[in-house]
Amino acid sequence: MSAGGGSSRRGGRGIVLVDYFIAVAVFSASLATFLGLSSLKLKALGEAERRFRAVQAAESALAETRSAVLLAARHALSEAQEANQAVAVAEQNQRYHQEKYRVTSSAFAESLATFDDLLDDHVELAEAELALYQAQYQARLKEAEARRLIGAP
Questions:
Q1: Is residue 135 classed exposed, middle or buried when 0-12, 13-18 and 19+ CB atoms within 10 A define those classes?
Q2: What global pTM score does this model have?
Q3: I need a surface site. Which of 40, 101, 120, 124 has the fewest CB within 10 A?
Q4: Is residue 138 over pLDDT 90?
């Protein structure tokens, strides 16, 4: 009985051993497949994270650029407004010197002013006109810069 029983135990052990090796092989194959898929998933997650960070960086750069353009546009509009105010002041100055020249010219005609007075007022009027032209030029220049920054024609 011991001989027959021993061989059946060995046979049973052999089957268990074979089953064990099959189980280990299946487990190893499953583990290798899992690790392979996990590696692919990790690579995909890494790529997705890299792309996400790139998108965040691009959005941040875009926001900074928009902010800088808005600031530049506001500055240009402010400069254009200041230049237009300078034109108004130059126009008023030119009208003043024009009237002053007219009065001096009438006084000279009545011999109440000298020729030097008339020439001085004429020079002042010419300088006021030149200042007006320069102010108008600067205003048009500042307006063009503001239109360029905001994309207007």
A1: buried
A2: 0.60
A3: 40
A4: yes
